[in-house]
Design goal:
Length: 323
């Protein structure tokens, strides 16, 4: 196996017309205490505090993913910070192009939600996005919250599933006119090109930071040297995320699934998030008896971005990505 040294890629920052700081003084309805906070651009030093905030709110969002997003382009990320330095909120965008961006991780510490910080932060971020078509993920029962910001165009719905891999399911490995190889053994630019087909907008820096990370096990399906699928499995704080699993047909998808699942240690859960309109992806969830915990819907504020759902078995992320 060819060894590839780990190299972080950085996206050329897309300049946003940011305000330096939006400062507000608010009072809790059940307290006479003034809460002073600022909404400001995120710094690398904020990552541990954001990670702690997400963990407190039961987000299964590992530090290495936060680093992946920040290393791709931090210019659209903001945090809410109290005057004592405590991070109590976060939201942001990741621009994919001059016309398209994705929002992600809208979170506010529980005791401060009644202040309307989340709405203020979201409005600030939307201003930064300018005229871009902005997509984001909403819990399917929270769609009305985002409608007030213009996110009214529904795209696809997907389910977040978790559970142990079924040994009987992965024992039956399909064969065909393809081979499964480690991404370390091929030119990664070919994987980037394939990812761009499905994601619809190239994201070479993000996907390189994710799929070439030292914790990632990334496999590629080849047919006569041409990429016809790929997948990544990485450890999360809870379980192992198979993000993404893309393939041109169900046989290739299952072969990739079996190879990726072999990297999940016994006693650990698989996290697999499938578009519900892909029947073969639904069959994978059923075949492994995974439990569905969340239903989420992709929303846009200007126009829908169609994706080839039949080639998507598990999404690449629930945050900061089109699919």
């Amino acid at each position: 196996m060819a060894f590839r040294p780990l190299t972080l890629r950085f996206q050329k920052c897309i300049l946003f017309p940011q305000k330096r700081i939006n400062r507000s003084i608010r009072s809790l309805s059940d307290s006479t205490e003034d809460i002073r906070y600022e909404i400001r651009p995120m710094k690398r030093a904020d990552l541990p505090s954001l990670y702690a905030l997400l963990a407190e709110n039961k987000w299964n969002m590992e530090m290495s993913y936060l680093e992946c997003v920040f290393n791709t382009d931090p210019t659209g990320l903001v945090v809410v910070v109290k005057d004592n330095g405590e991070v109590i909120g976060h939201n942001g965008i990741l621009a994919h192009s001059d016309t398209i961006a994705s929002s992600g991780m809208n979170v506010v510490k529980d005791e401060y939600r009644k202040l309307g910080i989340g709405k203020q932060m979201f409005r600030d971020v939307m201003k930064v996005m300018g005229d871009r078509n902005v997509g984001g993920t909403s819990l399917s029962n929270r769609i009305t919250f985002y409608a007030q910001f213009g996110w009214t165009i529904k795209s696809y719905t997907f389910h977040y599933n978790q559970g142990p891999v079924n040994p009987e399911f992965i024992a039956d490995v399909p064969e065909g006119d393809f081979e499964i190889v480690s991404a370390r053994d091929i030119k990664f630019d070919d994987v980037i090109a394939y990812d761009s087909e499905i994601h619809t907008v190239p994201r070479p820096v993000y996907i390189s930071n994710w799929a070439e990370h030292q914790l990632a096990n990334t496999y590629v399906a080849l047919n006569s040297g041409r990429v016809v699928g790929y997948g990544v499995v990485r450890p999360s704080d809870v379980g192992y995320k198979m993000y993404p699993l893309y393939a041109d047909d169900p046989k290739i998808a299952k072969a990739l699934f079996c190879r990726l699942a072999s990297h999940i240690p016994a006693g650990h859960d698989l996290i697999f998030t499938q578009p519900i309109d892909n029947d073969q992806a639904n069959a994978m969830v059923a075949g492994n008896k995974l439990t569905s915990y969340l239903s989420m819907t992709r929303l846009y504020n200007k126009w829908n971005i169609p994706v080839d759902i039949k080639r998507v078995y598990s999404v690449s992320t629930t945050e900061y990505g089109i699919i």
